[in-house]
Amino acid sequence: MKMIKLNVALPIFAVAALGAGCARTSIGTHEFQWTEDIVYSRPADGIDLNMQIAVPKGLKAPAPAILWLHGGGWAFGKKELMKPISEFTASLGYVSATAQYRLVKQGKFPAPVLDAAAAIRFLRKNASEYNIDPERIAIGGESAGGHIALLVGLSNDPTLIGSEPYTGVSSRVSCIIDIYGPTLLEPMYTKPSLAGKSLIGNFVGGDPATVPELYKAASPINHVRADSPPILILHGDMDWVVPYSQAEALASVCTERGARFELGCVSGANHAWIGQPRGRNCIATLPLIANFLGRTLH
What is the DSSP letter of 106? Predict the structure, then answer.
């Protein structure tokens, strides 16, 4: 499968033109309506997991949907962090949701993966209520959320994606957007970046020598198949939290196994820029996201 490497460098004058006077992220033609605090799952420990959904107005037919997952090292963050990118995709005509998931203090791996898979099932089960086409659902996320999105989209392992609380409803997705997410956890533990040993060890539940099978299961590249959903990988080449080599590793495995993917190298970008809607790197990558979704969900 061919590799498309997109080196993103937006001129300053273009950033100024796009950002001037913009108070919100959305730049498409669709207005949308948010529904807040929807309980999509109650895991065994009694936690209510919520999502919020933006439904474009004036839809004449069920629309594709995308679920966005926040970052935060599996230990921090909240669903509202992905509201700007959700508003962008909603403005393009996609039903756009962002969901909370269990953080490390509430549940270690694979708890957040199970939660995200349950969120996809919720959207599919309730497709008619939110005007969703159940055959066209995507998943995306940044950092830890990108990692979780990859595992939901790539894995067929029932211990990772589960079946509850909507038994018989698929968590299958049509495509995946990974924004600077970890893809191979062992080297991030043994040669730690800013992410550090503690975040990864706490999430997985030990070190690679003690629980090697968990590190293997928790690394998305180990779940890539020739028939995996298409993946858009967006990553800054100056990322000092999740090194750019993580994106290259995923791209390499996709190439080896014949999986469909596109790699967008954001020149000079560090980490955590997708949540900055008026930032240069975010503005530069929005067209890549719109183009990818337009080709894979239509």
Answer: T
